[in-house]
Amino acid sequence: MIQLAFEAPLRFLLLRTDRLGDVALTIQCAQAIKTAYPNSFVCFGLQSYTAPLLANNPFLDAIILTDTCTQKELVAKIKAQHFDVSVSFFASKIACYVPFLAKIPIRIGPFSKLRALLFTHKIIQKRSLSKQNEAQYNLDLLKILGCKTTYFPKIYLTAQEKAQAQAYLKAKFSTQAYRFILLHPGSGGSSKDWPIRNYLTLAEQILKNNLAQVLISGSLKELETYKNMLADFPLLQKNHFFESPKPLREFLAIIAEAVLFLSNGTGPLHCAIALNVPSIGFHTLMRSCKPDRWGPFAQDPSLHTVLTPHTPTGEKLPECKTCSTKCPFYLCMDTISVKEVYQTITHKYAHALTPPTPLPTPPTPLAPKAPSLKEAKICEES
Fold it and tell me: Is 87 left (phi over 0), alpha (psi -120 to 50) or beta?
């Protein structure tokens, strides 16, 4: 691959205009560029609902929201910034047309759609084959800039955000010594889900065996659905659920306090991994959602577990190109049993669930011996 060579500080625009998980797997690219070009200006363009992921990021100089104005206004805004290089990590219409119309001289992106012809440097990747992680595909686009590809996504929380999450959880569990597992059953349609009833059954088993507290998150509609099922799960109470959906930064800070995070292969799972929280992810084998591409991308892979559909004897099911009701394995996610997940928690994550051993209480110092009457008299005479 031809590498571009630059000497003077540059102005970079990074574009990722799709969903939460996609952005979470692109965060590390800001660090890769800022490390290779430390005196350069790095700006990220993305949707307003995903923008909080990048708040407090030390490798970013600015953020541009791509969905709060017309395309014409966005082009004018970007053109006024005089960017030297744009990197589009997904060939969306905005990520292809806007850098071209803003006349950014160097435009890098994946050659995956016809409109990608508008890039000056088109990188053939064939992401649909899912041969590597999405985060690695994103980093590989930066090779042409001479960037290293050994960075991992990381979300940066402020001390205030952490303190607010801790205060919420102390009030939620009525104790300062809370240890909880966070379950996020929804996926927003981005993947095929492990059944909701399995999540709630698992939550009951965790509570029944005093492994930890549980907290269940979701959208407003999802939370209503879960709470309407409580009659079938007597150990679960409304307090085990979010009262309502949390703003993204608040949600991230709560995730960061969990000892374990469980979810389908969706955005919040990638956020938990970027927060270095141990995770169990439920992934379908449909090619577009395979864990090879959408699984964990972390510096310490041992913290994370990927569970996929399998036969009763434990053999992996074949890959699917599409999901159809005609498929004999249409209910494939049901093959991952609650027992299997519970055993994974107790065997692999036992260290995370064990409360830390309290420090021994230091012995009470002995009170100084009172002088005898004779000793006191001698002191007075002297």
Answer: beta
Record the tokens describing residue 233, joined without a space. 């799960």
> 3-class secondary structure for the chain?
CCCCCCCCCCEEEEECCCCHHHHHCCCHHHHHHHHHCCCCEEEEEECCCCHHHHCCCCCCCEEEECCCCCHHHHHHHHHCCCCCEEEECCCCHHHHHHHHHCCCCEEEEECCCHHHHHCCEEECCCHHHCCCCHHHHHHHCCHHHCCCCCCCCCCCCCHHHHHHHHHHHHHHHCCCCCCEEEEECCCCCCCCCCCHHHHHHHHHHHHHCCCCEEEECCCHHHHHHHHCCHHHCCCCCHHHECCCCCCHHHHHHHHCCCCEEEEECCHHHHHHHHCCCCEEEECCCEHHHCHHHHCCCCCCHHHEEEECCECCCCCECCCECCCCCCCCCCCHHHHCCHHHHHHHHHHHCHHHHCCCCCCCCCCCCCCCCCCCHHHHHHHHHC
Give the global pTM.
0.89
Q: What pLDDT digit, counting tens, does each position of 329-375 carry?
A: 667 889 999 999 999 999 999 888 876 555 555 565 555 555 554 44
User: Quick count: other Cβ atoms within 10 Å of Cβ 346?
Assistant: 14
Q: Please, are residues 219 and 195 in contact by the beta-carbon 8 Å criterion?
A: no
Tokens coding 306 = 């990927």
pLDDT digits (tens, 9 = 90+) for 137-178: 999 999 999 999 999 999 999 999 999 999 999 999 988 888
Give CA–CA dist 377/241, Å, rounded: 72
- Output the CA torsion 250→256→262→264 (10° steps): 60
